TrEMBL record:
Top-rank taxon, per record: Bacteria
InterPro entries the UniProt entry points to: Aminotrans_II_pyridoxalP_BS (IPR001917), Aminotransferase_I/II_large (IPR004839), AON_synthase_class-II (IPR050087), PyrdxlP-dep_Trfase (IPR015424), PyrdxlP-dep_Trfase_major (IPR015421), PyrdxlP-dep_Trfase_small (IPR015422)
Source organism (scientific name): Mucilaginibacter antarcticus
GO molecular function: transaminase activity
Name of the protein this chain belongs to: Aminotransferase class I/II-fold pyridoxal phosphate-dependent enzyme
């Protein structure tokens, strides 16, 4: 066996031993309590029809044919970016092929050697990866903790960027954003907010809900979650947009999104303001889940505090988290285990993603089976 094959085998064996081996699984027909399709857009017949109608009027092109800077930039793309900027109350928007690309492009290109990036300790991997590619000083602060953030801000060198999520992908909770914007302003730092899991449930996001969009330096909105498609935008100033076109390598050195992806984003953005019913239904489902769960877990000590569609039940090790998801799947509920190293050792969990389309019976049944699990 070559040294590379040996290395691969060793690493995979280690994963097996740690109970954290990852494998791809096809769709399973179970009740969806794990996807990011919070409002049901990914399966919406209305959206499908609207996208088809849009594509029918632009029959001339399938693929983008090249990167945005060569042949892949359409008038359609730039109009879509202007429309998104207006809808999300930003000065400018720049589309990336995914949220991962957006975060890597932004964080790798903007902070320079001698600058400082301060990110919440639970920040998404795409922000960590982008920051690693930059030459800036990198620090994390205790999750959602303003004092810990201030301690890092006091020692920040150069231009400082503070990066947080408005709803954390693995915990579902929200930072004190209003205070954070005050704090970062006091220290002259630039606040960047990833709104991947907030858009939809909170309309165009927590930032616009708090009316702080003019005080936040940059936002990332992704279209693969509540919008049911794929892709993302960085929202910010016109200068930031121009800068990213010039320096963000994940935009410059990749083929642009095909028209279908752009049309899906456009039509999902148009559908959002007409989706009050779905948003209300999702809110009701979140409330129902929390009420039912707190009735069985009186101290609510297992549930991570969250008002979002992401609800996590802590099980504290990989084995128990895996067993729990296997049990729930056998009962018909597609709930996934979140294992270390994706989350810190000791905080392994099952993550329940709630949706507008989950029924009262489904949620009641799920909580009943979680109860059996906890008391087994
Ligand atoms: C907070 C956050 N940011 C960015 C991303 C990446 O977005 P995308 O799936 O569009 O690449 C994710 C997806 O998991 C996420 O949870």
């Amino acid at each position: 066996m070559s040294s590379a094959e040996n290395f691969i085998k060793q690493r995979l064996d280690d994963r097996h031993k740690a109970g954290s081996y990852r494998s791809l699984k096809p769709e399973n027909g179970l009740l969806d309590f794990c996807s990011n399709d919070y409002l049901g857009f990914a399966r919406s017949p209305i959206l499908k029809t609207n996208i088809a109608g849009e594509l029918a009027t632009h029959k001339d092109i399938n693929g983008a044919t090249g990167s945005r800077l060569i042949s892949g930039n359409l008038a359609y793309t730039e109009q879509l970016e202007r429309d998104i900027a207006t809808q999300f109350k930003a000065n400018a928007a720049l589309l990336f092929n995914s949220g991962y690309d957006a975060n890597v492009g932004l964080l790798s290109s903007l902070p320079q050697r001698g600058d400082t990036i301060i990110a919440d300790e639970l920040i998404h991997a795409s922000i960590i990866d982008g920051s690693r590619l930059s030459h800036a000083n990198r620090y994390t602060f205790k999750h959602n903790d303003l004092e810990a953030l201030e301690a890092k801000l006091r020692n920040a060198k150069g231009t400082c960027y503070v990066v947080v999520e408005s709803i954390y992908s693995m915990d579902g909770d929200t930072p004190p954003l209003a205070q954070m914007v005050d704090l970062t302003e006091r220290y002259g730092a630039n606040l960047i907010v990833d709104e991947a899991h907030a858009t939809g449930l909170y309309d165009t996001g927590v930032v616009t809900q708090l009316n702080i969009e003019q005080r936040v330096f940059g936002r990332i909105v992704t279209f693969g979650k509540a919008f049911g498609g794929h892709g993302a935008v960085v929202l910010g100033s016109n200068g930031l947009r121009e800068y990213l076109i010039n320096f963000a390598r994940s935009l410059i050195y990749t083929t642009a999104a095909p028209l279908h992806q752009l049309a899906a984003i456009k039509k999902a953005c148009e559908l959002l303001p007409q989706s009050e019913n779905e948003i209300n239904k999702l809110r009701k489902n979140i409330l129902l889940f929390k009420q039912l769960f707190s009735a069985l877990d009186k101290q609510s000590s297992r549930l991570i505090g969250s008002d979002s569609a992401i609800q996590c039940v802590l099980l504290h090790n990989n084995k128990r988290a895996r067993q729990a998801s296997a049990y729930l799947q056998a009962e018909g509920f597609d709930v996934r285990a979140i294992l270390s190293p994706t989350v810190a050792e000791g905080s392994e969990r099952i993550r329940i993603c709630l949706h507008a389309f989950n029924t009262v019976d489904e949620i009641t049944g799920l909580v009943k089976h979680i109860n059996i699990l906890i008391n087994a």
